[in-house]
């Protein structure tokens, strides 16, 4: 009776020892796998040592970018009414075409203002007048002005692009390729319009505005309209649009994700007016910026604010007017739009009072807005820091591995070991795909929207910006109308002055590029301007109609920055646009 006891004890001890050994081995292998993923996988990019163009400007750009990780190459231009100075930093050819994302929206804005001058359209007319396919639908009743002010009540993206955005973000794909102009109109027919929706950055809205302008002008398509009225007259010979992969310029700079992984090209037809697939050079955009300063560009009336947004921020036709803190500590007004795609970031900023402008193009998703502000106003570069949310993939991998290792230690079996190894491999894949690394610049902007501006959990944050939105900030589906809300308010508001444009309740564009607009329907703004509720007609024209209505253009023109002590980040708005969807 007493003999078997020692055998049982010895067997139990042996099993426990084996289990501990197995656990140690499994833990070591899992830790090694994750370490290999972090060290050997693609890393967050840093600005390369190569320099071209003006040496003094290149030095200033390097100093301005010094506080931020994530840049690989930058192409920069400083512009006055009579001079253009350019510089390139990093391995990319600074004179080659970059994807510019939602900066394209400035072309759409100019064509809109020009079409109003030509008498082709009126700001207060409904969309269905130019696009009769939308007659009788909520989208068809939206005015052109509402589209240009992101006050239409439309969702950030049409159903087709919105459905592709999550998978596109996860699999590093293009969310816009399947949306033709015909599909865009189909999506618009079924799109909800929310009269109570606060101003919401909508790539769908701008794409529809551009499509309406093409129809009103009798042009063949959007590229033809832009060539006829903007790029042709201004000699912008290197600005092109890619509806298909075959139309991507052979010399185009390759883009990169946050951790340096190659990014997919964005091509497609439907969202061209919003910036899904535009390629341009720093020289061409310098011409565009100079034409704004001199008044030579068509449709410069688009720069004039037509509605007040958050304190210190106003919007014209798509262009945003804000303020930046200069080296002198004073607040300086400027007009801007940013952009972001799956692997690029861009910014065009105009100091109209000072007669200066800056263009900054980057070949990664790191926001370039801080560099633009530093060059334009001497805004002190913000120190680059690790974004806590960038380590979420690492935390997930570590959690899964720890859970599996716990089982391995307790059970001492091969199956838990295999489980642990698989979860470690999962962690490695996450690190390889997105990788940890500090973010730079504002959290939202440009096409970092459906995207934007874009993150591993969101395809849009710069769908078509940045913001711009820019326009890249993370987003999650919001309630109603396919809208999205801030996932991380502090992330979206990490702009130069700490303002949180993505504040409570502000909806964001789905990788874009904005939740920048904080004015709700019915709120009175500076100088007696009013955002009309549903049922009011723009400018008092005609009878009341159902649906949302923007600010009366007749009364809103001339509204400027109201609060010199506050700021609104262009990046913050445009970038909070779902990344995959953010142009």
Q: Gist?
A:
With 583 residues, this protein is α+β, with helices and mostly antiparallel strands.
Keywords:
single chain, 583 residues, alpha+beta, nine-stranded antiparallel sheet, disordered C terminus
Secondary structure topology:
Blueprint: H1 4-40, E1 51-53, H2 55-65, E2 74-79, E3 84-89, E4 98-99, H3 105-118, H4 127-130, H5 144-148, H6 159-171, H7 181-190, H8 203-217, H9 222-234, E5 240-241, E6 278-280, H10 282-294, E7 307-308, E8 314-315, E9 320-325, E10 331-340, E11 345-351, E12 356-362, H11 369-377, H12 392-411, H13 414-433, E13 475-477, E14 484-486, H14 489-492, E15 507-508, H15 553-556, H16 570-575
Antiparallel strand pairs: 1-3, 2-3, 2-12, 4-6, 5-6, 7-8, 8-9, 9-10, 10-11, 11-12, 13-14, 14-15
